[in-house]
Amino acid sequence: MKKLIVGNWKMNGSLASNEALLQGFQQGLEAQDQSVLVAVCASAPYLPQLQQLLGKGPIAWGAQDVSAHESGAYTGEVSAAMLRDFACRYAIVGHSERRQYHGETDEVVAAKAQRALAAGITPIVCVGETLAERDAGQTEAVVKRQLAAVIHTVGHCSSEMVVAYEPVWAIGTGRTATPEQAQVVHHVLRAQVAAATVNADKRVHILYGGSMNAANAASLLAMPDIDGGLIGGASLKVPDFLQIIRAAR
Ligand code: PEP
Q: Where does the UniProt annotation place the signal sequence (predicted)?
């Protein structure tokens, strides 16, 4: 399976800075980077810009969230069909910042994943434990519960789905899980995917996210069950993001 590197720009960017970043990525990609799948997830207003600038090139694009509802009286929400209109390949769902600041439950995240899949968009389902949960020895139970909600709602483990293991204590903190710590959890998630649907474990990418950067990407990506990365801060810097892509070759 090709490795998948996804940038999550979070609530950053402007027309001008996005254009500079995307030009930097496009100019910096080398022929060998074709062995890596690359995508960028931007705030919704910039999706037409991504569609225009990335076009049919090698970098895909996606959203950072999607509504759990199909359409109607949900002011401020963006539906999966709207994302489809702008050719989004991916939508992040259940990022810990949405679970934490917007009260998204496992059930809401599962409904979002289902909406994305129904519209032909690959949901990047984020799971991960807080520091308190890790310290209490609950890491495995938490990530399994979060993923189980999605598998239950969708009815199986779609091979069109991506899972991202993002320990909450590692996001934006500069504190990365060690490759060994991440591998343990990825192995658990791989087994859960396999148990849910025959052969899904061979097709579903399981990404690591949480302060992945140019310096630590290679050692994380060398782990047998780490199929790529979800990159926050480092995806806002051209040389860093390119170096992570190179580490994934
Ligand atoms: C993220 O937002 O998904 C993330 C992993 O952020 P960072 O790389 O900045 O920790």
A: none
Q: What is the pTM of this model?
A: 0.98
pLDDT-derived band at 174, boundaries 50, 70, 90: confident
Tell me, yes or no, if 95 is annotated catalytic. yes
ipTM: 0.98
Q: Which one is the CATH code of 3-247: 3.20.20.80, 3.40.640.10, 3.20.20.60, 3.20.20.70?
A: 3.20.20.70
Whether 140 is a known active-site residue: answer no
Confirm or reject: Cβ of 39 under 6 Å from ligand 1: no
CB 237 within 8 A of CB 212: no
pLDDT digits (tens, 9 = 90+) for 81-103: 999 999 999 999 999 999 999 99
pLDDT, mean over the chain: 97
pLDDT for position 63: 98
CA gap 160, 8 in Å, rounded: 19
Q: Tell me, in angstroms, the distance from the centre of ligand 1 to residue 206's CA.
A: 15
